[in-house]
Design goal:
- The chain contains 11 helices and 14 strands.
- The chain has 329 residues and is an alpha/beta fold.
- It folds into 2 domains: 126 residues, 3-Layer(aba) Sandwich (Rossmann fold), CATH 3.40.50; 186 residues, 2-Layer Sandwich (Alpha-Beta Plaits).
- Strands 2-1-3-4-5 form a 5-stranded parallel beta sheet, with helices on both faces. The chain has a 5-stranded mixed beta sheet with strand order 7-8-6-11-12, with helices on both faces. It has a two-stranded antiparallel sheet with strand order 9-10.
- Helix 1 packs parallel to helix 5.
- The radius of gyration is 23 Å and the shape is globular.
- It starts with 8 loop residues before the first strand and ends with a strand.
- 34% of the residues are buried.
Length: 329
């Protein structure tokens, strides 16, 4: 479940050398389990990517340009973009516009009264928690954000890979071990995808949660083999320990499949369907989504944890080679 607005958490603070206003200082201290002061935007992003904070405070009263640029970077990343961002400014109306333009969730002037300051801050956290309610377990961006990210990538000239990850035999696992354990597996997978994608590519990686056990991650094309290989390898190391010892030792359990037929159910595996713009031209995210789903479906016909990449081109006929793990020309 997502944290309540009043729950304590980590707060990152990018100062500009001036003392925080009294009411704000008190509010931040009460809300935070820990407050970390960072020296610049690079340090802030590095810490935010390691563990999503509850709130980031940007002090732009003396240097608004530095504060807004750091805020813009935080909000541009798929993982840290959901973190509430508070920007402080001095008194100029133009500063207010710049703060919201940089993506800040709240922009407060130094002269604001203490009562209004606290009310606006509390409202900001309520809005943030409400917006994150779509995927309370993983707190990853959902379908709308995934579509926006694919659209953004299509507008750029860089080569990218859209990877659709889906668990195999997850329903049977849920039926045997309960939805609570299933939800824990979902969180493990979400963290694995995040740690590998962000660890390899930092802010160039996007990780989203479609729903259930379906995830999308988008990474630079040149690293797709390394990333997907590491993900499936680590997944296969972790997944046996989500089972009881008898099931783990046997490598299966008896359960009903999706047709209601009692059969041996193997341990969960991970199928990843991959679509790239290396040999194809896409004009809208729906095309990418349709092919990613197709590749994921094909990957699930193969045994074990696999990565299946679409190697088709726009102008060549396609054949399905069932002896390989790819769709080829």
């Amino acid at each position: 479940m997502s944290s309540a607005p009043s729950s304590p958490g980590t707060i990152l603070f990018l100062p500009d050398g001036r003392v925080l206003m009294g009411e704000l200082d008190t509010w931040v201290t009460e809300k935070a389990s820990a407050i970390f002061t960072v020296s610049d935007a690079d340090a802030l992003m590095a810490m935010a990517l390691r563990g999503r904070p509850r709130l980031v405070v940007f002090d732009g009263r003396s240097d608004l340009a530095t504060a807004t640029e750091a805020c813009r970077r935080l909000k541009a990343d798929s993982y840290t973009g959901v973190v509430p961002a508070l920007l402080l400014y001095d008194r100029d109306a133009g500063d207010l516009a710049q703060g919201f333009s940089a993506g800040a969730d709240e922009v407060l002037p130094a002269a604001l009264s203490g009562t209004e300051t606290v009310m606006r801050l509390e409202a900001m956290l309520v809005r943030s928690d409400r917006d994150l309610g779509v995927h309370p377990s993983t707190r990853l961006p959902g379908a709308g954000s995934i579509e926006e990210e694919i659209t953004r990538r299509l507008l750029q000239a860089d080569l990218f890979a859209v990877c659709y990850a889906d668990l195999d035999h997850f329903k049977e696992y849920n039926d045997r071990y309960s939805y609570y354990e299933g939800d824990r597996v979902i969180r493990i997978l979400a963290m694995l995808l995040h740690d590998v994608a962000k660890g390899l590519f930092g802010e160039r990686a996007f990780v989203g949660h479609i729903g259930g056990d379906d995830f999308i991650f988008i990474i630079p094309y040149e690293g797709v083999a390394e990333a997907c290989g590491e993900i499936t390898e680590v997944f296969d190391l972790l997944v046996p320990y989500q089972y009881s010892e008898p099931d783990r030792r046997a490598g299966y359990f008896f359960g009903k499949d999706r047709r209601g037929v009692l059969d041996r159910v193997p341990l969960m595996t991970l199928s990843i369907g991959i679509v790239t713009n290396a040999q194809r031209t896409f004009t809208e995210p729906r095309q990418v989504s349709r092919l990613a789903t197709e590749m994921k479906t094909y990957a699930k016909t193969l045994s074990g944890s696999v990565n299946s990449i679409d190697r088709r081109t726009d102008d060549r006929p396609v054949s399905l080679d069932l002896s390989s793990q790819t769709l080829i020309r």
